[in-house]
């Protein structure tokens, strides 16, 4: 027991004599002798943890119970009015022996206590509502006597209180105290039958080792008035060193003050309480003590004593702490695995080096660090670094994470160089607490350092494929950040290994992407100056980031003054598709240069695609604009091989889809054009100056999760809404602004050609003049 110092009130009562100790010792010895030899080391708990204790005060002269605490009252199904005879109370709670046989006469343990005798360690059965919860956590329902479902086995101890009430022994015992403690596993008629009863008898014997104390709240500081020998064996304190002292001497430096406070408040309110807290024996060794304290009142309801029951539950608490520690370790391991999995998923999705570094910093903050910086090396020695990413728990702190800012600490830099040189991580356990010590002679930086409140750091090399790529630095901050340990270092090293591989992959990807972009741009033509035409084009890369694909556009002036325009899309989004696109564009240019119409040109392209296996399939639309007539108009002829139809906007603003005579994709139908009648037809029309033709690929209209027809309608409505005189540059910019999807999953090629007015002198041949255009 660890009762607090400010509990007692002034009063007078003397310490008990030796008679009570001798009586209790004799009762314990008699109980042990009659029930069998007591094992030296109990192999089971004594009393069910957290159980309520029933306390009775008995008037010895009248053999009547004059006080019963709430737990003792609740043992009966029927209301009990005090005072009540011991026999009547025994019958009311249906108190029997372990075999379920009711007592008669003076056989009941309570009758023995009422006779002034000392009773220790007697197991009995209570067939009332019981002291123990059932399997569902609720109290057992009332039932017939002897019903296992409503039977609780309790351990009865009792002794007279004459010495505590009359230190001079001038009058016989007037009161006796009886305590009923429930035993764990307390069902006598279990599956093992009679062996279960024998087991409980042994347990009851063990229960005699429980420590009992009685304190006197009528004296100042509520001192101990009596302790049984088990208390001495439990704590190491002899009787003469504890009587007259408050039980707080069992407290120590690690005793939970919250538990002590709760006990103090319960005793002030004269309420029972059970707590488990750390106490200390006389030799200084610690043990976990389960303490149950119950108030004892006299017949008039006045408080006369506190009864305490102490139980050494160190083994149980240690096991529970080990279980909790194991669960905590398992939870920490699960969280680490989850973090590693998330980091792997996040960083492998990065498309460039900066993105990979930023993803890593955002993953470790705040899970592992309060601050994180990721630097890449400019030179191999690691002294010059470029900061690629920084993250902080607080947004204001992130602004201070500059490369030459407050984080440039001598001890961190020394470990950083070593980490890069040796390829292993380092701990920086303690950082300067004062900014003036961290940055002497630089008050501004010192002030920034103070605002960061740094506590500890880790520096981890960022390595990929056997070489140092950069450095990761993690920091914790006061007041909540912990000091890093080797366990943290191992986890961060694992994360850094994954981050290094992601960064190295991103670097290789950037090199490949740059090479692919160079190839793609070399395959796309520079738009020529064409007399009488204004031309503009755009090529946009899909979100896969390859910078290459099969989309293409072309404008080809002919020797006779005609102009060809084409847009196509080779199936695929890789270097192979780009190479096929370049071949197909070259083939179409060569056939168009010969002067054939659009239909025959696409037929011959189809034959070559299938014969030389240039590409699996491709779409294409080819338009031929003949030289201008005297009135400036031109004949437009077109053919379409499975491509989205171009849009023609007339000078009056009306819109026409060029969708006549559509034919299969190139390469889609084997031997197309060889069989009789299997060829692509042309469609022709006359277009006046001011006519605008817009070609596009399906990257603008075929969007995953969206209606392609609705996207095509949006494109047409946007084009129709532009001013009649809008130049091709304005047209392509506006169409992309309105119609470009949020995520561009496919490449986009867009080409706009406008027929312009020409002077008579400009109609002599190609290349003499032209409108402004940009590719």
Description of the structure:
With 775 residues, this protein is an alpha+beta fold. The protein is 33% helix and 24% strand. It has 20 helices and 28 strands. The strands form 5 sheets. It has a 7-stranded antiparallel beta sheet, with helices on both faces. It is elongated, with a radius of gyration of 47 Å. It starts with 17 loop residues before the first helix and ends in a 20-residue tail after the last strand. Residues 1-50, 132-149, 163-167, 186-197 and 760-775 have low confidence and may be disordered.
Largest sheet report: 7 strands, antiparallel
Mean pLDDT: 77
Query: What does the oligomeric state look like here?
Result: single chain
Which descriptor suits the 3D outline?
elongated
Count of helix runs: 20
**Content-based structural category:** alpha+beta
Q: Helix share of residues?
A: 25-40%
Which spans have pLDDT < 50 for at least 5 consecutive residues? 1-50, 132-149, 163-167, 186-197, 760-775
Number of separate strands = 28
Question: SSE layout and pairings?
Answer:
Layout: H1 18-35, E1 54-59, E2 64-68, H2 70-73, E3 84-85, H3 86-92, E4 95-96, H4 109-114, E5 119-126, E6 152-160, H5 162-165, E7 175-182, H6 194-207, E8 211-215, E9 224-227, H7 229-235, H8 239-242, H9 257-268, E10 273-280, E11 286-297, E12 303-312, H10 314-348, H11 353-367, E13 371-377, E14 385-392, H12 395-398, H13 410-422, E15 426-428, H14 435-438, H15 443-452, E16 454-464, E17 467-477, H16 486-523, E18 533-540, E19 551-557, E20 563-570, H17 575-593, H18 598-612, E21 618-625, E22 634-641, E23 647-649, E24 655-657, E25 662-663, E26 683-687, E27 692-696, H19 708-720, H20 728-739, E28 748-755
Parallel strand pairs: 22-25
Antiparallel strand pairs: 1-2, 1-7, 2-3, 4-5, 5-6, 6-7, 8-9, 8-12, 10-11, 11-12, 13-14, 13-17, 15-16, 16-17, 18-28, 19-20, 20-21, 21-22, 22-26, 23-24, 23-27, 27-28
């Amino acid at each position: 027991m660890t009762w607090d110092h400010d509990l007692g009130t002034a009063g007078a009562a003397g310490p008990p004599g030796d008679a009570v100790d001798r009586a209790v010792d004799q009762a314990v010895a008699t109980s042990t002798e009659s029930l069998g030899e007591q094992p030296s080391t109990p192999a089971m708990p004594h009393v069910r943890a957290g159980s309520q204790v029933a306390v009775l005060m008995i008037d010895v002269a009248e053999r009547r119970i004059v006080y019963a605490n709430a737990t003792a009252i609740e043992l009966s199904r029927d209301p009990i009015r005090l005072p009540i005879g011991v026999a009547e109370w025994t019958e009311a709670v249906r108190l029997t022996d372990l075999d379920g046989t009711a007592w008669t006469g003076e056989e009941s343990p309570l009758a023995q206590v009422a006779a002034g005798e000392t009773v220790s360690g007697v197991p009995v059965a209570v067939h009332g509502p019981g002291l123990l919860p059932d399997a569902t956590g609720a109290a057992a329902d009332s039932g017939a006597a002897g019903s296992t479902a409503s039977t609780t086995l309790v351990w009865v101890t009792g002794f007279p209180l004459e010495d505590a009430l009359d230190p001079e022994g001038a009058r016989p015992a007037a009161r006796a105290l009886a305590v009923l403690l429930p035993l764990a596993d307390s069902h006598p008629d279990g599956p093992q039958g009679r062996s279960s009863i024998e087991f409980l008898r042994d347990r009851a014997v063990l229960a005699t080792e429980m420590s009992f104390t009685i304190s006197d709240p009528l004296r100042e500081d509520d001192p101990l008035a009596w302790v049984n020998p088990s208390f001495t064996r439990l704590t190491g304190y002899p009787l003469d060193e504890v009587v007259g002292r408050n039980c707080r001497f069992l407290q120590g430096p690690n005793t939970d003050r919250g538990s002590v406070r709760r006990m103090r408040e319960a005793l002030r309110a004269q309420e029972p309480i059970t707590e488990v807290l750390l106490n200390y024996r006389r030799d200084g060794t610690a043990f976990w003590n389960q303490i149950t304290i119950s108030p004892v009142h006299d017949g008039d309801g006045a408080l006369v004593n506190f009864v305490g029951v102490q139980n050494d539950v160190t083994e149980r608490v240690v096991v529970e702490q080990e279980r909790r520690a194991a669960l905590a370790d398992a939870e920490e391991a699960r969280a680490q695995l989850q973090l590693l999995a998330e980091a792997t998923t996040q960083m492998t999705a990065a498309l460039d080096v900066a993105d990979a570094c930023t993803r890593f910093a955002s993953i470790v903050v705040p899970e592992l660090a309060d601050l994180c910086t990721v630097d890449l090396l400019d030179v191999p020695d690691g002294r010059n670094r470029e900061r690629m990413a920084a993250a902080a728990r607080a947004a204001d702190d992130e602004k201070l994470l500059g490369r030459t800012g407050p984080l440039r600490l001598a001890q961190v830099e020394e470990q950083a160089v070593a980490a890069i040189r040796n390829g292993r991580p380092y701990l920086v356990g303690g950082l300067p607490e004062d900014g003036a010590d961290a940055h002497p002679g630089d008050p501004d930086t010192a002030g920034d350092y103070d605002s960061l409140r740094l506590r500890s750091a880790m520096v981890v090399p960022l390595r990929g494929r056997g070489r140092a790529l950069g450095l990761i630095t993690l920091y914790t901050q006061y007041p909540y950040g912990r000091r890093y340990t080797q366990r943290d270092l191992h986890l961060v090293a694992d994360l850094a290994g994954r981050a290094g591989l992601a960064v190295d992959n991103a670097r290789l990807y950037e090199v490949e992407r740059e090479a692919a972009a160079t190839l793609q741009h070399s395959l796309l033509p520079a738009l020529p100056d064409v007399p009488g035409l204004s031309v503009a084009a755009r090529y946009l890369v899909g979100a896969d980031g390859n910078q290459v694909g099969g989309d293409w556009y072309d404008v080809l002036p002919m020797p006779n003054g005609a102009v060809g325009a084409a847009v196509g899309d080779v199936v695929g989004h890789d270097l192979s598709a780009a190479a096929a696109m370049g071949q197909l564009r070259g083939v179409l240019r060569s056939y168009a240069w010969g002067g054939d119409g659009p239909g025959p040109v696409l037929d011959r392209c189809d034959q070559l695609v299938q014969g030389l296996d240039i590409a699996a399939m491709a779409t294409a639309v080819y338009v031929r604009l003949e030289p201008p007539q005297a009135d400036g108009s031109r004949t437009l002829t077109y053919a379409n091989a499975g491509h989205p139809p171009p849009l023609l906007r007339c000078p009056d603003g009306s819109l026409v889809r060029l969708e006549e005579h559509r034919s299969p994709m190139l390469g889609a139908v084997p031997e197309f054009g060889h069989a009789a009648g299997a060829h692509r037809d042309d469609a022709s029309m006359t277009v006046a100056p001011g006519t605008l033709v817009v070609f596009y690929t399906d990257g603008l209209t075929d969007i995953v999760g969206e209606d392609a027809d609705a996207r095509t309608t949006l494109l047409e409505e946007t084009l129709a809404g532009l001013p009649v005189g809008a130049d091709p540059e304005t047209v392509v910019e506006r169409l992309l602004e309105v119609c470009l999807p949020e995520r561009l999953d496919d490449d986009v090629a867009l080409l706009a050609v406008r027929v312009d007015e020409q002077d008579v002198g400009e109609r002599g041949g190609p290349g003499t003049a032209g409108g402004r255009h940009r590719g």
